[in-house]
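Internal tracking record. Fields below are filled automatically when a chain is submitted to the structure queue. Please do not edit lines marked as system-generated. If the sequence contains nonstandard residues, flag them in the REMARKS field before resubmitting.
Queue: standard
Priority: normal
Entity type: single polypeptide chain
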Amino acid sequence: MIKRTKNYIRSQLLKRLKKQKEVEQLKRSFKIQNKLFSLPEFIKAKMILFYLSFGGEVETFRMIQKTMSLGKKVALPVINSRNKRLIPSLISDCGYNLELGPYGIRQPKKKHMRNVALDKIDLIIVPGVAFDLHGNRIGRGLGYYDRFLHSLPKEIPSIGLAFDFQVLGRIPSLESHDFPVDKVLHA
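SYSTEM-GENERATED OUTPUT FOLLOWS
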């Protein structure tokens, strides 16, 4: 029953993400960027693991560019679908050295991968289809981020980015493999 409820929420919100007008998506993404960039966790971070948005998600491309212009290092996840793991890879630009990876998600090209040790990451920006105010999340259903967040040192903060309509009062009962984020920023 829990899985069915989560799948229903996921399908409804994915439709809504794709339907939103680009101008509204960018306007709200900019508000979320301003919130992120004013957080103490972001200000003190030297290495940030972002994700590259797609399918109507909070737009992160500009956030990544601005983060790099501030002199911070940025890593992006590379999907290892064989082991169902995310591998953080340092990037030097946000465009030329990327390719479409599994599930249609852009990631660093294999020949440009520069693995980053988990303890070198100071902050993780986490995607989600839905969040609640306690940081619980519904992802795309494959568990990559849950497994990744479980593997991190506990002191590394994680922040979810969402539009207001993605923030629910409560995510249905958590399953043992679900892993919450520390904060959710939304607009």
